[in-house]
């Protein structure tokens, strides 16, 4: 089968054997490229790429595949907190073969059926939408909550939409580029002012962290989604002076037997404008090198680039 393999500093399209072993065989329909895939190349990964993907089972069931595999046995996994797996979650595309290939074999418990109204060709957005949904859950967003999101990439847009879905009284979004402002207006998010109960930082930058603390009210909460480079200066003095709580959000999991993945899939099915707006480019797997090149420049109208095996 054809697959896209990390070959730092770039990728290559290769022919490899179909995956064997235990688990369900998924015919991959679409795989997204995100910033993590680009970082994995910097880290030197030589695995098959891809952790945002969806496809079809033998019986035609459309599924998205969770991008964290816990051991399934430890105390954390038994509670549904596989992102906190004691043995360390497996990360396809970095630590194990990913889903940017024609076929992928996944543990059955990591498959989430797609709801009607969500095309499997768009199902690769369930993974980043789950990251967004989890961050809002970590923040405790609900009615009467004023929310600002810093960073208007795909995950920033999805985070704002998730906050709206959770019933936030106000959701505003800080964007930089014209296409990001267009998306902000499309989903009905305003421009940030000040004094927010919750601020979610999705840009993954030092300046984004500082801006998030600046936007938070006294006693507010800042949730951050990403890993920051070594040497990042955290705005602890500013947070201390306002008693702003800073809380990390790692991936996604299950809460009270309801999976972030299922919630995110339902969000996308209910708001089709999200998939049509955020998937800006599609490439056949043979053109994966060009797809990765396009994905690296977010200033030219790019949200998510999708590779179709």
Automatic annotation (TrEMBL):
Q: Which GO terms describe its molecular function?
A: metal ion binding; oxidoreductase activity
Name of the protein described by the UniProt record: L-idonate 5-dehydrogenase
Organism of this sequence: Mycobacterium bourgelatii
Instruction: Return the InterPro entries for the record.
Output: ADH-like_C, ADH-like_N, GroES-like_sf, NAD(P)-bd_dom_sf
Q: Does the keyword Calcium apply?
A: no
Annotated ranges, domain Alcohol dehydrogenase-like N-terminal: 25-115
Family matches, as Pfam families: ADH_N, ADH_zinc_N
Q: Which cofactor does it need?
A: Zn(2+)
Looking at the record, the residues that make up the Alcohol dehydrogenase-like C-terminal domain are 162-269
What keywords are annotated for this sequence in UniProt?
Answer: Metal-binding, Oxidoreductase, Zinc
In the UniProt record, does the keyword Thylakoid occur?
Answer: no
> Which family does this protein fall into?
Belongs to the zinc-containing alcohol dehydrogenase family.
């Amino acid at each position: 089968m054809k697959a896209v393999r990390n070959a730092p500093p770039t990728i290559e399209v290769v022919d490899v054997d179909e995956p064997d072993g235990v688990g369900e065989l998924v015919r991959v329909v679409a795989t997204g490229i995100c910033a993590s895939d680009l970082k994995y190349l910097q880290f030197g990964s030589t695995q098959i790429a891809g952790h945002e993907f969806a496809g079809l089972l033998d019986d035609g069931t459309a599924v998205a595949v969770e991008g964290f595999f816990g051991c399934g046995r430890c105390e954390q996994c038994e509670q549904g907190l596989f992102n906190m797996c004691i043995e360390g979650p497996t990360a396809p595309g970095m630590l194990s073969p990913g889903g940017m290939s024609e076929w992928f074999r996944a543990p059955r418990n990591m498959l989430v059926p797609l709801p009607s109204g969500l095309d499997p060709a768009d199902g690769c957005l369930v993974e980043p939408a789950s990251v967004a949904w989890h961050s809002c859950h970590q923040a405790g967003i609900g009615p009467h909550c004023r929310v600002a999101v810093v960073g208007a990439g795909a995950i920033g847009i999805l985070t704002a939409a998730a906050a709206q879905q959770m019933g936030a009284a106000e959701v505003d979004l800080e964007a930089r580029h014209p296409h990001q402002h267009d998306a902000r207006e499309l989903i009905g998010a305003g421009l940030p002012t000040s004094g927010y109960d919750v601020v979610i930082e999705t840009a993954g930058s030092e300046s984004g962290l500082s801006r998030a603390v600046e936007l938070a009210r006294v006693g507010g909460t800042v949730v951050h989604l990403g890993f920051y480079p070594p040497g990042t200066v955290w705005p602890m003095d500013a947070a201390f002076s306002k008693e702003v709580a800073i809380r990390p959000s790692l991936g996604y999991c299950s809460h009270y037997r309801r999976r972030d993945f299922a919630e995110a899939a339902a969000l996308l099915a209910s708001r089709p404008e999200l998939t049509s707006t955020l998937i800006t480019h599609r490439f056949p797997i043979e053109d994966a090198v060009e797809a990765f090149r396009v994905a690296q420049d977010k200033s030219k109208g790019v949200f998510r680039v999708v590779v179709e095996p």
